[in-house]
Design goal:
71 residues, 4 helices
Length: 71
């Protein structure tokens, strides 16, 4: 549900709200070991970060998402 909320916030252009929601989503995914959810949240974080001009943050998020897909 948090991932959907983050996506909706991104669609509205509220990237700060999306990132805050993604923080909670990533925390839950890490706590529960849900790698698929974590990878999706990180992919969304990468998109939001890039849209905000935070290219280094975006790259880190994308790199972690890709690494999760490899394992």
């Amino acid at each position: 549900l948090q991932l959907v909320r983050a996506g909706l916030a991104m669609e509205r252009g509220d990237l700060a709200a999306a990132l805050a929601t993604l923080d909670a989503c990533e925390d839950d995914a890490r706590r529960t070991g849900n790698r698929s959810l974590l990878a999706n949240a990180l992919e969304h974080r990468g998109q939001a970060s890039v849209a905000l001009g935070r290219l280094d943050d975006g790259r880190r998020a994308f790199d972690e998402a890709i690494a999760l897909g490899r394992h």
